[in-house]
Fold each of these.
Amino acid sequence: MPGYNAHRIFNYAILIAIAALAWYESINPKQLLALSIGFYLGTDFLTPDLDTDSTAIKRWGKLKILFLPYKWTFTHRKSSHNIIYGALVRILYIGLILFVLYYVLFKSFPPGTLFFSVYSVYILLFLVGIIIANTLHVLLDVIF
């Protein structure tokens, strides 16, 4: 099974190829940035290895305590390494934490219709970036 740095090198090599293709195809730079940020977070912070004492979980510092329920719920290389299900669960998990934190800080929910209608393409590309990074992680684990 490849180590953390092997996953990062593999993922970032693919990201460079995606960016080169996007530049060649004249893709909107803001959309590429949204995809790249999601890809970065999916590679370094929201990996399938959050259910172990991995480098990825250590990157969260003191906030790694937020992932204890996730770690207790999911066993390594099972559902957390499912290409679609694993990434979606992590996105929903961190999204729920952020949503609750937002509510605690501001005592209300954001006006979702305006936010999501204006930025929906960027949000979608951000989430796709996370899913692509997670998919590459799982594929590299399967290959090696």
Amino acid sequence: MSVPPDAPRVAPAFAIVLLSMAAFASAANMRVIDPLLVQLSLEFGVTVGQASIAATLFLLANGVFVLVHGPVGDRLGKMPVVAIACLVAALCCGLSAFADSLSLLAAARFLTGVASSAIIPLAIAWLGDNVAYEKRQATLARFLTGQTLGLMTGAAMGGALGDWLGWRAVFWVLAGIYVVAGVALFAVMYARRDIARPAARTAGSMMAQMLAVLRRRWALTVIIVVALEGGVFWGAFTFVGADLHQRFGLGFAAVGLAVAAFGAGGFLYVTVAHHLVRLLGERGLVLWGGTGLGLSFAALALAPNAILAFAAIVMSGITFYMLHNTLQVHGTQMAPEARGSALALFALCLFLGQAIGVPVAAPIVDRWGAVPIFWAAAIFLPLLAWWFAAALRKRQRSIRG
């Protein structure tokens, strides 16, 4: 495999841990409000549907404003922007805790999404600047520990803390995590000022940078694949919980545990990622990941009981990250001179894929149940992975040639 011409600096291990902590808070924030909706509806005298605006506005801001943060990170330095975003997100979480109306809470959640959206894409871009390509996949997998645990525990944390201490306490806990990560990142940058500098000079406007990335054929391939992956996978997986409840009669606590098994599968992948990278290589990870996703969704469609469905969910977590982690690595290499902008596009297309996939699947699920959607994902995701693996082989040959 050819090593890219850019020469990464050496990334301090502690900085990666702190970035992972920040990613934990950012990912947990995406799901933490879901179990609080009933409390919020009672607190503010609104319906649960009306209370959900606090979740919707966060996700909207988190998906859109990444386009702003990417070019800013390229110009000013990715780690400083991440550290500032952590402190601003902490302030916004504090505003959420003080909110005395749904409109104020929704505004605070929107601002939290604006700040929080900088963290994960720019952290991944910073790793691209500071970790050599041959070590990047395993390092990204370790970084993903925080994001995966955040997605896995966000809803559980919101439900448990909300029930025990009230919904306002949830936001204070998240604010504390953001503050610790942000202050510690500033301390690391003070000790190692070289890692805070922009990796390269970028020229042109924000739009020009984005268009420059899209004009690269390989970058366009990666972006299209991640958008399709996000749309098909999350379009199907979003309805796993409802399917378990309807087909097997699981209670909501058991459904929450089963869906959290996806995060457990992702965590299992993280623990063995460095071995898998060495044994399978990039194309092997893509092929086995796509094939495993196909088998996982087929198993969910055919599962005669909840135990087999649970096992399929764990398998989907492992194999999803085999494929997605490889896409992230190539996302870091789409435009080495403008990684922030490139990862912003990557994150936006993943978000748009999810935003389109779920509403497309919803009417099918309402009419025929989730099984047809599972079968569609079981067929499409392996085909997508095999196509990307073929494109990857062609690219590797052109680099060597």
Amino acid sequence: MYNFKYKNPTKIIFGKGTISNVANEIPAKAKILMTYGGGSIKKTGVYNQVKNALKNFELFEFGGIEPNPHYETCMKAVEVAKKEKIDFLLSVGGGSVLDATKLIAAGTLYKNGDPWKILSEKDRITDALPIGAILTLPATGSEMNGNAVITKNATQEKLAFGSPKVMPQFSILDPECVFTLPDRQVANGIADAFAHVMEQYLTFPVNSPIQDRFAESILITLIEEGPKVLANRSDYEAAANLMWSATMALNGLIAVGVPQDWTTHDIGHELTAFCGIDHARTLAVVFPGVMNMKRDNKKDKIIQYGKRIWGINKGTDNEIIDLTIQKTIDFFESLGIRTKLSDYDVSEHIIERIMNRFKERGTKMGENTDIDYIETGAILKSRL
């Protein structure tokens, strides 16, 4: 196991009826900017719950944040935050809203020119507005980490950044928010959380049995509980287990002391940037290709995953790996998520554009930094 440091200061408030607690978590005289997406929180009643809870605060609103949030939209919110002298941000929505809020928090106090440099140049964040979150969609894990992914619409770029300065001070997780979600969002959330675990787990062994078992417990829970939520949206216990699994998948705990991959996410971001494919669906497409391409490097962990998660105990190493990859594909497909690029009308022309972008950037990915633009092309072409 590798050396590591771990600290997670985010306070989690979990359970039904907890949204009303938000007023107790924000400084009494704070000027709040509430951020949200396309307005679904108004249909579900979450909006009114928040407004009622914060009736004694000076509250401003900024809606319209997109799935795969746009940098341009974030900068409009930064203008509002500066104009109104906002001193607290409250994200009400899923991971996209919270990712955008993290950039708004950093961008409002950024002193080094264009805040896009936070993403494009990995410029260090030295200060940010404090953030709280009310999570309405289990998926990204953004509610308990300092990471965010933002799309610049003008250049079709989707890039990530991370900083402890933008970790939420608190996150309220009410599983009843899951009750009103459409199938597509639930399925995407399950796949997203699953892929988050796999990026940290499916690498190579470093004698880290605690992290492995933590990761495997999340995978098994997603496999068992996710379909229950899809079948019966009002199953509170299943919704609670799904929501907590998605949070645990990316709060840093299973990442400590182990190598990480993130190739699938890096490639998937480009598919979203160029084609607008749902983030989780790009992961379901790309991950089997990465598993197959790196089957030798990842052999020990793929076999461990196949045995412990899917109960595959017979066959040669290659037979176990093949069946394990197929079981992973079958799981994504069982959620209603298609796993081939041809299902999304992605052409070889798009693959060439992604390869060229990675070539220009000198991109090297994977736990061994051995996946370049050529291997990226092979991975994608194998998923046509």
